[in-house]
Design brief:
- The complex is a heterodimer of chains A (468) and B (263).
- Helix content of chain A is 30%, strand content 25%.
- With 468 residues, chain A is α/β, with parallel strands linked by helices.
- Chain A has a six-stranded mixed sheet with strand order 6-7-8-3-9-10, sandwiched between helices. In chain A, strands 16-17-18-13-19-20 form a six-stranded mixed sheet, sandwiched between helices. In chain A, strands 1, 2, 4 and 5 form a four-stranded antiparallel sheet that branches.
- In chain A, β9 and β10 form a beta hairpin.
- In chain A, α3 crosses α4 and α4 crosses α5.
- Chain B is mainly alpha-helical and 263 residues long.
- Chain B has a two-stranded antiparallel ribbon.
- In chain B, β1 and β2 form a beta hairpin.
- In chain B, α2 packs parallel to α4.
- Classes of the chains: A alpha/beta (468), B mainly alpha (263).
Chain lengths: 468, 263
């Protein structure tokens, strides 16, 4: 019996120039596990919201459909942990759902404990949600979904903000609870679930279903199609760009001595000595919460730390002394934007270095390189997450910094743009720029950096590199 | 919200937030009608003792807060003291004219403010924000959609503050690469506000969808916390009444001020 059956769906967002879906058909069997793939903007999340009835009930959107059979009992897990919880503590958040279902107070706690047991989230009930790690927040989101007693689960990029280990652990939890449920997944990072779903559905930029099939069939016969639309699949990295290793210069640009970072009186990171040369490509790895991002901020002198930072043999006491030469790109791209147009965001970087026509030309080159020309006229805050990330990296290119510090620059990018960005980093190192990047992606770590640094037990250590 | 500053719980923690708000309102009206500075002085001392013992907050934090309350109270009294009218001149220099009457009036006003601040601090330190909204929904029948919106909004506050600091750091490093006209002055302020607001609106929109997808409606529901009125509410009312009576009595016995009417 089909759980979801949608025939001839037509949908148009009021502000959009044309329809998103035209006569779209999709049906999903009861108990089926389905993975929805497609480039960003292909309408995957919108389709998910139609299947769960959020559109048009909650998000009022004009739509027309001939057949619409959708499950009554469903639950969602969304991508951003910070915008799906209502209440301050774990118990109150879980109770929120039980209150919605009018469960008597006496039954609430046993039900919470049972659901927490199923997801293996072992935290005190009165713990503040803000104190949970990203991975734990997503487990809490699944726990609350379970309390809705859903027949169907909709997962909208649940792991997109997690590191590899937390993502794997989350998928284990999801697998543990999905046996008699229908599950529809929208996800970019597919390594863990590819083999576990029954069907893969590929959508294109025009929100049409291009192809569907079993995961094996998709990989065996339609890999070309997957690559063409730039979506990740388990064999994506076979087509990864390969570069000749760049021999770094001997000039030492950055030097850290006895750097020590504290957070709330606790030691989080110690670096005895680290020297970074011109033209090096370095990755920093470590689990969530080990202080990778703090390390970048400490190098930039944006947060207090003990010990010394030297840039070109000069001791740095204030950010101002080397800002511009050493430039960080943070994880939240939105916060780095200043202007009201994508074009201006890059142009203002060019302005101090070139006269007007040349500055415009250089801006266009970068827009092109980052695949942002089509949205040059838009506000930086209204473009997609992947586009924002690319734009935030682009803001680092103008002044041509000598050292670039990047916090997860390829997060949330599709295959095509991730590869393009990696190629750009390679070209930059070849031209003498030093790249230091935090990344969770094993595939990047083993392929590109000249040196790998790893944070373990509050210490920064060098990891031996073996290129593949 | 105050786990880090709290040392122990007292019976006031179990008093219904509505009782506290009601008492605060009554106290507000009461101190306005007390014109005898001697009574007000004793009430201040009694409220101070109540806060010190019954708030359950670590002394270190209490002292910081008290310093703030007293200093700001003193500063606000200066207007009254410096420029008030009166016949018994204590000090005169230029436009500053301190008289005995204006001095007492200034102190009087300050004590009113301090009493309300002390009780306010007691209420805040002994009430969980969720309890306040549950009490509003259960006892005062406030619609769940308002109560839950506020609770969700409060959860957002630390996120927005953290975001503001990240934004400042991001600008600090970007400043070096661009002309400063984009980042300083009104333009910089505007883009800061637009960025923070749009981030919050986006988050609120997503949260709204998440709440509805979790089956939230404005209709009937059960409650995880059961706020009700108990004997503790009575205790607090009695305590406040006792403090007031004691202050009035002490005010006639131990008199620091010569006058009984500061008007």
């Amino acid at each position: 019996m089909s759980e979801i059956d949608i025939q001839k769906l037509n949908l148009k967002f009021p502000e959009a120039p044309s329809k998103l879906f035209t006569d779209l058909n999709i049906s999903i069997e009861s108990g089926e596990k389905v993975l929805l793939l497609g480039p960003s903007g292909s309408g995957k999340s919108t389709l998910l919201n139609v299947m769960g009835g959020l559109i048009p009930k909650v998000i009022q959107t004009p739509m027309k459909v001939r057949t619409l059979n959708i499950p009554e009992n469903n639950a969602y897990v969304f991508q951003d942990p910070d915008s799906q919880f209502t209440m301050p503590t774990v118990a109150e958040e879980l109770a929120f759902i039980l209150e919605n279902r009018s469960i008597p107070k006496e039954n609430m706690e046993p039900m919470m404990m049972e659901a927490l047991g199923q997801t293996g989230l072992d935290v005190p009930l009165d713990l503040n949600i803000n104190n949970l790690s990203g991975g734990m927040k997503q487990k809490l989101a699944i726990t609350s979904a379970l309390l809705q007693k859903p027949d169907t689960l909709f997962l909208d990029e649940p792991t997109s903000m997690l590191d590899d280990e937390s993502a794997a652990s989350l998928w284990d939890v999801i697998e543990g609870i999905w046996s008699d449920r229908t599950v529809v997944i929208v996800e970019h990072r597919v390594d863990y679930i590819w083999d576990k779903v029954d069907r893969v559905i590929l959508m294109n930029d025009n929100a049409q279903i291009i192809h569907e099939g079993t995961p094996e069939d998709m990989l065996k016969h339609h890999k070309q199609l997957l690559n063409e639309y730039g979506v990740w699949h388990p064999d994506s990295w076979q087509k990864a760009p390969e570069f000749d290793p760049v021999q770094p210069d001997n000039e030492v640009l950055l030097e850290l001595k006895n750097l020590r970072i504290e957070r709330r009186g606790m030691d989080i990171l110690n670096i005895d000595h680290l020297s970074i040369k011109k033209g090096e490509w370095i990755t920093i790895e470590g689990k969530n919460g080990t202080g990778k991002s703090s390390m970048l901020s400490a190098i930039m002198k944006l947060i207090p730390s003990d010990g010394d930072v030297y840039y070109k043999n000069k001791r740095i006491k204030k950010t101002k002394q080397f800002a511009g030469e050493v430039y960080p790109v943070f994880q939240n791209p939105e916060l780095q934007f200043i202007t009201h147009k994508v074009f201006d965001e890059i142009y203002i970087n060019m302005e101090p270095h070139f006269e007007y026509t040349e500055a415009v030309r250089q801006t266009e080159v970068i827009l092109n390189q980052m695949g942002l020309n089509d949205m040059a006229h838009l506000h930086p805050l209204e473009i997609s997450t992947g586009q924002k990330r690319r734009l935030s990296v682009a803001t680092a290119l103008g002044g041509v910094p000598k050292v670039l510090l990047l916090d997860e620059p390829t997060f949330g990018l599709d295959q095509k743009h991730a590869f393009r960005m990696l190629r750009m980093f390679h070209e930059m190192t070849a031209a003498g720029t030093t790249i230091i990047m935090i990344t969770h992606d094993e595939n990047i770590k083993i392929r590109y950096p000249g040196r790998r640094l790893i944070i373990e037990d509050q210490m920064l250590e060098e990891k031996r590199t073996d290129y593949v | 919200m105050f786990e880090t500053v709290k040392k122990y719980n007292t019976f006031i923690d179990y008093v219904n937030p509505l009782t506290k708000i009601l008492l605060a309102a009554i106290l507000f009206v009461t101190v306005i009608f007390i014109h005898n500075p001697n009574v007000l002085f004793h009430l201040t001392i009694l409220m101070l003792i109540t806060l010190l013992i019954l708030s359950g907050v670590k002394l270190k934090y209490l002292i910081l807060l008290l310093l703030f309350i007293f200093i700001s109270g003193f500063i606000s009294s200066l207007y009254m003291i410096f420029y008030g009218e009166g016949t018994e001149t204590l000090f005169h220099y230029g436009i500053i004219h301190i008289t005995e009457e204006s001095f007492i009036r200034g102190i009087h006003i300050t004590m009113r403010g301090v009493i309300l601040s002390l009780f306010g601090a007691l209420v805040i330190f002994t009430s969980k924000i969720t309890d306040v909204f549950y009490a509003l929904m259960i006892q005062l029948k406030v619609k769940p959609k308002y109560a839950y919106s506020f609770m969700a909004a409060i959860r957002m506050v630390p996120i927005i503050i953290a975001e503001y600091f990240q934004l400042r750091q991001a600008r600090k490093v970007r400043r070096a690469l661009i002309h400063k006209k984009y980042i300083s002055g009104f333009k910089g302020l505007k883009s800061t506000i637009v960025t923070l607001l749009s981030q919050s609106i986006r988050r609120a929109y997503r949260l709204g969808i998440a709440m509805e997808s979790k089956g939230f409606t404005d209709g009937s529901r059960t409650y995880f916390y059961r706020t009700s009125f108990s004997r503790y509410d009575l205790y607090l009312m009695l305590l406040m009444a006792a403090a007031l009576i004691a202050a009035v009595q002490l005010g006639t016995v131990i008199t620091l001020f010569d006058t009984t009417d500061a008007r």
